[in-house]
Amino acid sequence: VAAEAPDQAAEKPAGGAAAFETLLVTTEDNITTICLNRPTKKNAITVEMYNEIIKALELAGKDDSVITVLTGSGDFYCSGNDLNNFTKIPEGGIEKMAKDSGELLSQLGQSPEGCSSYTFPKMMGLAKASEMLLFNKKLTATEACERGLVTEVFPDSSFQTEVWTRLKAYGKLPRNSLALSKQLVRGVEKERLHAVNDQEVERLVERWLSDECMNAIMSFFQAKAKL
Amino acid sequence: VAAEAPDQAAEKPAGGAAAFETLLVTTEDNITTICLNRPTKKNAITVEMYNEIIKALELAGKDDSVITVLTGSGDFYCSGNDLNNFTKIPEGGIEKMAKDSGELLSQLGQSPEGCSSYTFPKMMGLAKASEMLLFNKKLTATEACERGLVTEVFPDSSFQTEVWTRLKAYGKLPRNSLALSKQLVRGVEKERLHAVNDQEVERLVERWLSDECMNAIMSFFQAKAKL
Amino acid sequence: VAAEAPDQAAEKPAGGAAAFETLLVTTEDNITTICLNRPTKKNAITVEMYNEIIKALELAGKDDSVITVLTGSGDFYCSGNDLNNFTKIPEGGIEKMAKDSGELLSQLGQSPEGCSSYTFPKMMGLAKASEMLLFNKKLTATEACERGLVTEVFPDSSFQTEVWTRLKAYGKLPRNSLALSKQLVRGVEKERLHAVNDQEVERLVERWLSDECMNAIMSFFQAKAKL
């Protein structure tokens, strides 16, 4: 689920004790909504935000929520990692780069993350996965749907209505059955996904510290500067 | 292959010795057709029928058949398990529920079966698989084709002609080559599929015995009764 | 990448020392092009050609190439194995068969190869994979794209322009990052793919030596002869 959170009058903050600096967390009708709340930064994720997301998910896992929605405030879901979190980038470059977050991974000398090196080929075949992961193919929403990355695409005007109609129906499903079914569907791959993630992270750390990555980032800035 | 068996004059019963109570089993042109034969119950599957299907498949595996077709008599392929087979459902509810077999699994507090928790994510990605297995998304025939669950979709008027044209061609393919190729394609996953199936069945048994499942079934009946 | 190599004036042969009998190998803009060069035989692959392809790939892996393109000279990418490489086929039949290379595998009593018994079901689901691997379904280019076998389809008139626009952009990507990302994407499956390939090859050898295969080939020739 992407784009801004719905304007729902009856929303109430979740867990009186839990206060969040970077998130808006509300619960209603068995649905917990975690809303990234740095709209002026297009919801770029900081280390603090990562920690708060983990905390909010743990709370939602313990209360009566049937569904948890992750979304962003403002007109942008999320622009990726806030690059101010990363060291080893020359000071002058960070501001420029932050403006262009979402920039393509391999163009910056990066490598796949989030288990995409495993899940993308599984989902769409090696040819189309390579097109995205190695050659930076950008997809339209319709193409993302065709490749199995999202389930449905709506026009902006009806997005909130269509999504929340579905979410409210899902929120009424038997909670334990849903949780156990999800465990069945996901459990088979859990060990594999952790191993894949470890490998990807290890590779990313190497990449960030490499001269090639640094040069790619520098020449990216220079190209931008010329525009 | 779904829908009714073709009206083929030259059909003959398979294996003189094998008599079936709940199936029509015929063999012609190297093709064995196993037809579920309880049209008044929309071919709901009983325990007896399961045993006869196993027997019929074993026979077809031993004779000269190249292809085995599973279909149903009447205008309905199969409405799923005959719920009279299952205990632990209050007596009053069974008749109502049988009328609505095919009712959605997780709505009734159930969990995925038939290895779908493994094969669906593999085939269509986790997002679209979850939509079906957790949130009861019903597909049109065209959508089922797009997600890889079926290979082709025909209008009702030409269905039998189109399908049997293909089947008759398949029935002429070299038998051993086909069997060995099928073993290659399926063998890789056989062990995994058995493990997945064991897990799914274990989970389903828990589900059927849970209060949540019982309550979901009861509220399903009450909703129906109000209509 | 398929079809003929581009008419590029600035191309130069790769590695002065490496001479190839059956291939044209050129390198330009970090892109090595390996072009199968038996246009009069529709680039049917001989044992010598296999050895030269291996050698050319090893050279491209060691030099500065970022991308390696495999294509064919003339208007045909490749018609498959040159059947003159295979013994156990009666002398009279080889010429006829060579003309029809690309003939369907299971119709000739063969079985899947090139890891397709594993990669096809993974990519498109078991139903559609079986349709191709067991029942010889031929795909249009558009269908191949929908099933994930290719990433894009172009009309013949713009094919070279479209493909080379992409390749030249890919050739400018950071080399190490690309290689490491490719290793990530492919590494997970490498062991599995070798095991699958071993099984497929073993099965193919059995098939080629079987009476069924021989009979299927013979009846294929007879059917052709009657046309």
From TrEMBL, chains A, B, C:
Compartment(s) where it occurs, according to its Swiss-Prot or TrEMBL record: Peroxisome
Keywords: Isomerase, Peroxisome
Record has Zinc as a keyword: no
GO CC terms, sorted: mitochondrion; peroxisome
Residues in coiled coil: none
GO molecular function: delta(3)-delta(2)-enoyl-CoA isomerase activity; fatty-acyl-CoA binding
Organism domain of life: Eukaryota
Name assigned to this protein: ACB domain-containing protein
Organism expressing this protein natively: Albula glossodonta
